[in-house]
Amino acid sequence: MSDATEEKQPAAAAPATNVALEKLKWKIFIIVGALSIIADQVTKIWARAALPLKGTGSLAEGACAIPTDMVGPRPRCFAETVPFIDGFWDWRLSMNPGSAFGLFGSNQGAARVFLSVVGVAAVAGMVWMLKKSRADQKVLHWALALVAGGAIGNLIDRIYYGYVTDMVLWRYQKHEWPVFNVADVVLVVGVGLMFIDIQKETKREKAEKRAAQEAAKAKGLIKY
Fold first, then answer.
1. What is the pLDDT of residues 162-182, one digit of tens each?
2. What φ, ψ does residue 93 adopt, rounded to 5°?
3. Which one is catalytic: 69, 90, 157, 184?
């Protein structure tokens, strides 16, 4: 009786292990995604409150309303640059409409709706991919959590303000990169991890194919 019980224990443990791994991937997704959103929103709140703006005309010595006085064809407030790492890294507040390459032109309302829908669809896609992923694809789990967290971080801005808050300005000599935020960094890292997962999956599939060929060759099913 004891021998039979011992033989059954590994088989019973396997489903429990699979369930635990499935739960772990959802925990990673929720925790990493939530921390990404918090880091993004905290830095944006700080940027809107602390980074200086220079008003024009009647606002020269008054308060600037964000984002109202910073956007539009005739903005009344302009962001001032605050050096952080001299010559490389500055802080500068920017309210980005997020319409790449002038998409939607002056129709900011259409851009806000469309890009918000895209953001929601992206998050839904990450959840779907996580559900379909294997429990051992840990790199992919982190990637999906980061991409979802970054997308939600910018989506919050877009829904609440109609613009995305940016504050990090990188420069080298006379070149300046577009101003970005924590959500953008998280998104880039997440996408990078996705490419790593794709490479790992490609290698795994090739290894499985070779193993199947070797097994077939050993059984005499193939001659090469």
1. 899 999 999 988 899 999 999
2. -70, 135
3. 184
What is the number of domains present in the chain? Answer: 1
Q: CA-CA distance, 216 to 224, in Å (whole number)?
A: 10
3-state DSSP: the chain helix, strand, coil percent, rounded to 5?
Answer: 65, 15, 20
Catalytic residue list contains 184: yes
Which pLDDT does position 13 carry in this prediction? 59
Which tokens is 97 given? Answer: 């409409």
Per residue in 68-95, is it b (16+ CB within 10 Å) or e — as a string?
ebbbeeebbbebeeeeeeeeeebbbbbb
Q: Is the peptide bond before 67 cis (omega within 30 degrees of 0)?
A: yes
Is pLDDT of 35 > 90?
yes
| pLDDT at site 105 | 47
Residues 69, 90, 166, 197: which is the catalytic one? 166
Residue 140 lies in a domain: yes
- Both structure tokens of 114: 């469309």
Residue 2 in this model has a pLDDT that exceeds 60: no
Q: Residue 78 falls within a domain, yes or no?
A: yes
The size of the chain, in residues, is 224
The answer to whether residue 157 is catalytic is no
Question: Which structure tokens are listed for 213?
Answer: 């060929």
The answer to whether 199 and 139 are in contact (CB under 8 A) is no
Q: Residue 177 is part of which domain span?
A: 2-218
pTM for the full model?
Answer: 0.82
Q: For residue 169, which phi and psi values (nearest 5 degrees)?
A: -120, 115
* Identity of the residue numbered 1: M
pLDDT: which is higher, 205 or 145: 145
